[in-house]
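Lecture 7, part 2: worked example. A protein chain together with zinc ion.
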Amino acid sequence: MNFRNQPANRARWRQRRKNNPLRTVIAAMLALTGLCIIATGNITAGLLLILFALSITRRVQYFMTARHLGKAFRTMIPAALFAACCLVLPPVGAREEPAPAEPALTAQESSTAPESAAASWAEVHFLSTGNSDAIIIRTPDRCVMIDAADQDDEQQILAYLQDLHVTTIDYLVSTHPDADHSGSLDAVVENVTVGQVLVSNGSADTRTYQSFITALSDKGLTPSVPLEGVQIPLSQDSYLQFYNTKAQGSGNELSLITLFVHGDHRFLLMADADQALEESIMEQLPEVDVLKVSHHGSDTGTSPAFLSHINPDIAVITCGLNNDYGHPHQQTLDTLQQAGVTLYRTDTQGNIVIRSDADQLTVTTSAQNTQTAQPASAPTAEPTFKPTPAPTPTEAVLSESDQQSHQNSAPSESGSQYIGNLNSQKFHRPSCSTLPQPQNRIYFDSREAAINAGYDPCKRCNP
Ligand SMILES: [Zn+2]
Ligand SMILES: [Zn+2]
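Predicted complex, written out as structure tokens:
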């Protein structure tokens, strides 16, 4: 201040500013950066930066503001432009930040996974609410809730949604009016913002269903029955699709069947469908990766023919410990085991979260969470499946997880190039997301060996 106010010093200062080469270099660098930013597509930010660069050069400053406007005004222009740059630039930085993380996520199958899919993910949460269904599907931008368990589960469901920071449910689905599926729907409608409400065909006069319908009308929401087979997009690479939308009858016969697809991964949620319903929609269904077993593992559903048609690798049974119905029935457990399906159960493993990334499915159970302290949503480089040890597939999974990762990686290290499924007679690359359980595997050294042994190539990993 004082230094600049001395007349002699002031002249020297002005001279130095006029000829300051550093200022020109900085301006040139900023202008270049501006051009680069324009090249990345953010034209506004780039232009602002170039304007800022120009505005700090003495000549342009003089041109832009006549000398008589005063020094204060002249210095305000670069300051204002700089502030504008700061406001516009952060999104550019934020968008560029995740880039280094991508290779790690796609390391396993970087050649097959498109770059844009690397950041894409989806999670399906099967809540442990006893002998009832409460299922949450999440993608980066959307949240879907399918059924809301019994009436006395509402605190648990609302707390779970809160833990996930879910404040909006884009699609709330009621598969059928039974109390173990619609019990807490009214509480969800009352406490969370709901977008669209999709319900099964038919009507019901159960008390729980009536309070759900009342809650909807209080919120000005109108339920609708989805159209058969129409895809409802949730993100650029995921969608919902419904079956049995024209159901007639009552109770479990009305069950709305949900197919959720994320990239190459398919989840089929069977509500409480019985075998007749399974048979009626079977031909429309694709092969899937994950099956939510119908009706809490009851032997009224999950016929061997149906299971073999949809050919899942993972099954989830939502059931209560020591429930009155004897769910899951032994017959269903046998069918699943004979098909070589990896089974998860909410009664013994708690909440089950299946995360789909571009090239793998990761299963986390809350029982396991408490011991490994891993958040359910954390991306992990673990192999496709956590084991469910045979013959009692219900025991804790955690102690085996290290062992499993060793088993899964061993074949590729020891030279086996292809892994066959003894049950489905298909063979896969070791990196495939749908590898069979260890006890159902057969290893081949070459593609020819697998073909000669009568095995078909997997449609997902194309070995
Ligand atoms: Zn039911
Ligand atoms: Zn049920």
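Confidence is low (pLDDT under 50) at residues 90-118, 369-414. The domain at 401-457 is CATH 3.40.10.10 (DNA Methylphosphotriester Repair Domain). Keep this in mind for problem set question 3.
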